[in-house]
């Protein structure tokens, strides 16, 4: 599994810390004027597929390079409830300053990985692949798409330059001529880019075939229509299904025979995973004599 580059992770961590720390941690500074040796343990309070450990680890080190990472689980591992995810030791002041940001990365990214894993499990036994979309949090796309991969899904386009996807608004501007839009895209596209086009009706599927699209995206079709479209296409193009897919419906959609199911909810609506951090002193505070 390819991890985002260290530069990408550091950049995301830097932005998050600048947002959270601002001019410093007023509470911690007021309570603890001197170093307090401590251990922090991040624990998962539900079964989950872990994602974001690399970002959480970098968060602690960005706050204080002297923080010692004692133990981590690896990104992509499925763990049980109450499992430790990350253990760090160092000045409690540094651990407190990194706590929220590290948890934010872990909760958000593990939530995405866990939801993706559930969708992948739901279609087990079918050849279909679960894809994400570009419906990502601004600035976090690389990390969110990494979490999808950790959950067993695959990435659709990372950016607009990665492929041709002719959608409803493109077609409206092109006179709603699906076949012509496919031909124009093929003539104007860089060599090697696949031509994908959105189809909302069976007539548009036929037009996409006439335009020799490589991939036909069946948008918001019901299952009987998807089944009919797959039979109509007969392997002449790859078939992707998208629009309103849920855990309750994804297996029935998979049974209709598409090659891909793309789900925006993987990144824009995944519930945050339940994790927390406990920080305890490594030794009892000194007592006055």
Structural overview:
With 289 residues, this protein is α/β, with parallel strands linked by helices. It contains eleven helices and twelve strands. Strands 6-11-10-9-8-7 form a six-stranded parallel sheet. It is elongated and about 75 Å long.
Write the topology of this structure.
Layout: H1 6-21, H2 26-31, E1 37-44, E2 48-49, H3 53-63, E3 68-72, E4 78-79, E5 84-91, H4 92-122, E6 129-131, H5 141-150, E7 164-166, H6 168-173, H7 178-188, E8 195-199, H8 202-210, E9 215-219, H9 223-233, E10 238-242, H10 250-255, E11 260-262, H11 265-268, E12 275-281
Parallel strand pairs: 6-11, 7-8, 8-9, 9-10, 10-11
Antiparallel strand pairs: 1-5, 1-12, 2-4, 3-5
Helix pairs in contact: 1-3, 1-4, 3-4, 4-5, 8-9
Descriptors for this entry?
4-stranded antiparallel sheet, alpha/beta, 6-stranded parallel sheet, 12 strands, 19% strand, 289 residues, 11 helices, TIM Barrel, 2 domains, Aldehyde Oxidoreductase, domain 3, disordered C terminus
Query: How much of the sequence is in beta strands?
Result: 15-25%
Average of per-residue pLDDT values: 95
Stated plainly, the CATH topology of the largest domain is called TIM Barrel
Shape: elongated
Query: Regarding CATH, which class of the largest domain?
Result: Alpha Beta
What is the H/E order? HHEEHEEEHEHEHHEHEHEHEHE
Secondary structure tally, helices: 11
The CATH homologous superfamily of the largest domain is termed: Aldolase class I
Low-confidence stretches: 285-289
Strand order of the largest sheet: 6-11-10-9-8-7
Number of strands: 12
The description of the largest β-sheet is: 6 strands, parallel
* First-residue to last-residue Cα separation: 56 Å
Supply the helix-strand structural class: alpha/beta
Residue share in helices?
A: 40-55%
């Amino acid at each position: 599994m390819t991890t985002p580059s260290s530069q990408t992770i550091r950049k995301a961590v830097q932005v998050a810390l600048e947002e959270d720390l601002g001019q410093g941690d007023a509470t911690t500074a007021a309570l603890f004027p001197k170093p307090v040796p401590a251990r922090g343990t991040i624990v998962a309070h539900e079964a989950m597929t872990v994602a974001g450990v690399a970002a959480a680890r970098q968060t602690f080190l960005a706050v204080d390079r002297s923080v010692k990472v004692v133990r981590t689980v690896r990104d992509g591992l499925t763990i049980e409830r109450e499992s430790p995810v990350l253990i760090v030791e160092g000045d409690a002041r540094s651990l407190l300053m990194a706590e929220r940001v590290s948890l934010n990365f872990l909760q958000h990214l593990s939530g995405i990985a866990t939801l993706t894993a559930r969708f992948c499990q739901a279609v087990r036994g079918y050849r279909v692949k679960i894809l994400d979309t570009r419906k990502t949090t601004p600035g976090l796309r690389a990390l969110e798409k990494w979490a999808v991969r950790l959950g067993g899904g695959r990435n659709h386009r990372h950016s607009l330059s990665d492929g041709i996807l002719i959608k409803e608004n493109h077609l409206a501007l092109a006179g709603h001529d699906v076949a012509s839009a496919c031909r124009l895209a093929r003539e104007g596209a860089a060599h090697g880019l696949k031509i994908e086009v959105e189809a909302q009706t069976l007539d548009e599927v036929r037009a996409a075939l006439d335009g020799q699209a490589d991939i036909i995206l069946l948008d918001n079709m019901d299952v009987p229509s998807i089944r009919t479209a797959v039979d109509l296409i007969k392997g002449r193009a790859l078939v992707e299904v998208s629009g309103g897919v849920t855990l309750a419906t994804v297996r029935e959609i998979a049974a209709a025979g598409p090659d891909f199911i793309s789900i925006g909810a993987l990144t824009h609506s995944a519930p945050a995973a339940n994790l927390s951090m406990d920080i305890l002193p490594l030794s009892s505070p000194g007592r006055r004599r």
